[in-house]
Amino acid sequence: MKLYTKTGDGGQTGLYGADRVSKAHIRVEAYGTVDELNSAVGLARAHNGRSHKPHAALDADLEYLQNALFDVGADLATRSGTPYAKNVSRIDEQDVAFIEAMIDRYAEGVPPIRNFIHPAGTLTAAALHVARAVARRAEREVIRLLHEEEANAQVQVYLNRVSDLLFAMARAANQVAGLQEEEWAVKGRR
Amino acid sequence: MKLYTKTGDGGQTGLYGADRVSKAHIRVEAYGTVDELNSAVGLARAHNGRSHKPHAALDADLEYLQNALFDVGADLATRSGTPYAKNVSRIDEQDVAFIEAMIDRYAEGVPPIRNFIHPAGTLTAAALHVARAVARRAEREVIRLLHEEEANAQVQVYLNRVSDLLFAMARAANQVAGLQEEEWAVKGRR
Amino acid sequence: MKLYTKTGDGGQTGLYGADRVSKAHIRVEAYGTVDELNSAVGLARAHNGRSHKPHAALDADLEYLQNALFDVGADLATRSGTPYAKNVSRIDEQDVAFIEAMIDRYAEGVPPIRNFIHPAGTLTAAALHVARAVARRAEREVIRLLHEEEANAQVQVYLNRVSDLLFAMARAANQVAGLQEEEWAVKGRR
Ligand code: B12
Ligand code: B12
Ligand code: B12
Ligand SMILES: C[C@H]1O[C@@H](n2cnc3c(N)ncnc32)[C@H](O)[C@@H]1O
Ligand SMILES: C[C@H]1O[C@@H](n2cnc3c(N)ncnc32)[C@H](O)[C@@H]1O
Ligand SMILES: C[C@H]1O[C@@H](n2cnc3c(N)ncnc32)[C@H](O)[C@@H]1O
Ligand SMILES: [Mg+2]
Ligand SMILES: [Mg+2]
Ligand SMILES: [Mg+2]
């Protein structure tokens, strides 16, 4: 089977199950953005792997996240009540609780935030900040989807926590590297 | 001539030819996203160039792609029937066929896919996956443009194949580096 | 205070001041995209810091830019006339002039452009081009906001100049590294 099936050349594509929709449909935008997020996470992992001192726990947690983002993608790609819906494991409160515990673990090692910090530092930290911002874009697209048709609201909550997790991970990555955080120096005060 | 011409400060900008439109116009969104894609391809090229074992054929193919993405940008920036349209070489079936041959060449070296693979691996592979996801975003914007006004439908098909090409290239980059692909471990199975 | 406050789990969020809006609101899209831009700038800084010959002036200018992008974010997050508006320093003509002087400084060291150049080269240059394209996306979102409700028009102008600045910086980064620029070879001429 070739990668390019040409079935989408008219601008329509298939969801998981029988439905066909425009590739411009907000549902496709939502899981397409989650795919972009997954790729941004992969770039952060690659930077961690090539750093002076790769952080093994971070790699494992990001691998977990990459798997989970495919669960998120499958959830978004599958309308409830359609034939294949039974194959899909929906994102639920337990997934959210799992990621909150992970946030707490990363956040506990770094000082409380008093001000915005520059999304910068090591390559791993900076790439995690990029992923964080893409996670927030994905959350916004999911909210647009929820405004338009039925979908799983836990996916929005989950993506929100993913962005908090990536923030906490970025701070941890800089701390492990011994880098000082730069705080926002508001205009007028610089 | 200064870089900043200030002619766009009112929020309108020029297409190629005489027309002026809002910078929020879907046509500008479409070629602006192709510009973002071209930049993502450039980052992947830079990573390849700095890797332990730069892949010369990959660099040449990505250079081809960067040129082609400017052809795509010019195509999108030029409404048919306007004065400068005759200067522009439109994307056509031959361009699509050319890129399909390239996909086949990269795909042939790697095992068939049975499951989604993590967009990860070497820095080059991970950056190619980011570009892949941006190509898909660009495809979606072009479809929105096609829903709204006349444009070249081959551009959508071309961008679709670009995302398949970048996928095949990412897999090849990991294979050359001797990296094992990670497959999606579906929830409930982890 | 935990990172995740759960107050946004219903899909609404707070602006700076009392107003609550949908996270899908164009105002949130605008400052969310500026956050993505700030992160892209952070990645370029990280690449510069890890290059063979880090460019100290570039790092300082990008640090300035990261601060300024938080000023931009605060400006966008704060509706005029709301209770906290008095705390915010708005982007003004002087900020624009400041960045124009910076553009001139970077542009003066490189030959005038005669054709589009590939967004590529060193890792720093390529990452600056990615940031440039994201700045242009942010500009487009701000224009959408301006089409829909009152906001500070100088923010659009400022973001426009930011993209020109990042272009000039990318060219300078390649020049310092002794890299030759690749020009667009138009279809038909390759
Ligand atoms: C939604 C979707 C996407 C979305 C979201 C997917 C997600 N989960 O996050 C995104 C945007 C990520 C995506 C990307 C791509 N996709 Co897609 N995608 C689909 C679609 C519509 C549904 C997939 C899905 O999520 N199913 C839900 C899950 C639960 O069901 P399932 O896939 O059957 O999963 C079961 C099996 O995978 C099995 N399983 C699990 N592990 C394993 C392991 C082995 C060894 C085996 C045998 C089985 C197995 O168990 C799972 C649960 O029951 C399918 C088409 C279709 N209608 O099925 C195309 C499809 C799979 N995609 C396709 C392609 C080409 C791609 C891309 C390469 C496109 C590109 N150029 O970027 C990428 C690849 C990304 C990657 N990293 O691998 C093609 C594959 C064609 C081919 N040659 O095989 C398909 C068939 C569409 C098509 N007709 O063109 N895709
Ligand atoms: C559409 C457009 C874009 C789009 C898409 C372009 C594409 N093809 O992908 C995108 C978003 C990429 C873009 C980006 C930028 N753009 Co622009 N763009 C345009 C626009 C409107 C049309 C360009 C085009 O594609 N023309 C179609 C082609 C076929 O025509 P052409 O450009 O005349 O090409 C011919 C010549 O280039 C010639 N040629 C080819 N090779 C060579 C080589 C040499 C040596 C020579 C002499 C000629 C030559 O042959 C071509 C075919 O006939 C022009 C303004 C205009 N109306 O012309 C601005 C314009 C060229 N852009 C401009 C700017 C500033 C930029 C950016 C720097 C903005 C930024 N901050 O990011 C970047 C630069 C990107 C880069 N990598 O170099 C300015 C340049 C100002 C200046 N000082 O020269 C212009 C003039 C707009 C303006 N008035 O402000 N742009
Ligand atoms: C808009 C906004 C954003 C926007 C834009 C902000 C910008 N300026 O660019 C963006 C999208 C960037 C953003 C991102 C994040 N945000 Co936010 N954000 C806000 C919001 C709504 C307003 C912030 C703002 O810009 N205020 C305008 C400025 C002028 O006012 P100010 O913040 O009071 O600034 C004054 C003080 O900071 C003080 N100050 C300056 N420097 C210093 C230094 C010290 C030491 C002290 C004590 C004070 C101080 O002087 C400033 C001027 O008077 C607040 C909630 C709120 N309503 O206040 C949340 C808020 C601050 N954000 C929050 C969070 C969690 C985040 C993120 C971590 C989310 C994520 N997962 O990505 C990131 C962090 C980004 C980073 N790099 O640090 C939480 C923080 C919760 C907590 N535990 O403290 C808040 C409180 C919202 C909430 N209730 O959940 N945010
Ligand atoms: C930290 C601040 O970011 C804003 N906010 C909340 N969710 C998102 C999102 N998905 N994207 C962008 N901004 C968001 C709110 O204003 C919040 O208070
Ligand atoms: C692999 C799957 O990705 C979806 N799909 C097809 N085209 C796009 C695009 N441009 N962006 C996001 N998703 C897309 C379809 O559901 C397809 O089956
Ligand atoms: C260089 C060219 O890019 C287009 N242009 C101007 N502003 C933007 C933007 N924010 N995003 C994308 N394209 C833009 C115009 O067509 C301009 O002439
Ligand atoms: Mg396809
Ligand atoms: Mg301009
Ligand atoms: Mg929150």
Question: Explain this structure to me?
Answer:
Three copies of one chain form a homotrimer. Chain A has a two-stranded antiparallel sheet with strand order 1-2. Chain A is built from five helices and two strands. Chain A is mainly alpha-helical and 190 residues long. The A-B interface holds A 1-4, 8-9, 11, 22-24, 28-29, 32-33, 35-36, 38-43, 45-47, 50, 63-64, 66-68, 70-71, 74, 89, 95 and B 100, 103-104, 107, 112, 116, 118-123, 125-127, 129-130, 132-134, 136-137, 139-140, 143-144, 146-147, 156-157, 160-161, 164, 167-168, 182, 184-188, 190. One magnesium ion is lined by residues 4-5, 8 of chain B.
Summarize the structure.
The structure is a homotrimer of 190-residue chains. Chain A is mainly alpha-helical and 190 residues long.
Helix and strand element order of chain A: EEHHHHH
pLDDT averaged over residues of chain A: 96
Largest sheet features of chain A: 2 strands, antiparallel
Strand count of chain A:
2
Regarding quaternary structure, what we see is homotrimer
Q: Nearest-angstrom radius of gyration of chain A?
A: 18 Å
Distance between the termini of chain A: 59 Å
Low-confidence spans of chain A: none
What global shape of chain A is seen? elongated
Which secondary-structure class do the elements of chain A indicate? mainly alpha
Instruction: Tell me the fraction of residues in β-strands of chain A, as a range.
Output: under 5%
Helix content of chain A: 55-70%
| Pair with the biggest interface | B-C, 36 and 43 residues
In this entry the ligands are:
cobalamin, 5'-deoxyadenosine, magnesium ion
